[in-house]
Amino acid sequence: MDDLIIIIALILLNGVFSMSEVALISARKSKLSAEAKDGNRSAANALKLQSEPDRFLSTVQIGITLIGILTGLFSGATIATEAGNYLTSIGLAPKMAMNIAKFVIVAIVTYLSIVVGELVPKRIGMGHADGIAKLAAGPMRLLSLITTVR
Question: Which residues span the domain enclosing 38?
Answer without folding.
Answer: 2-147
